[in-house]
Amino acid sequence: MIKRYIPFIVIGTILFIVGGDKVFPGAVGQMSYQVRNSINNTLMGAFPKWERQTNPYERTEKQLEETESNR
To answer: What's the number of CA atoms in the CB half-sphere (13 Å) around residue 40?
Structure first.
């Protein structure tokens, strides 16, 4: 019997997290905002920031510097 309501509970929870602060006033809306920010921060912290290890233009910059210094 409860299996019948699980999709509605999941969809309701997602809708609450996504837009509850815009629909519900006061503490309930604030709770939705806090849950969404917590999930966002958790997901952003799970993936490290990607930074290039090398400079792709390094060779070109060196050639330009050499060319300019030889003039």
So the answer is: 8
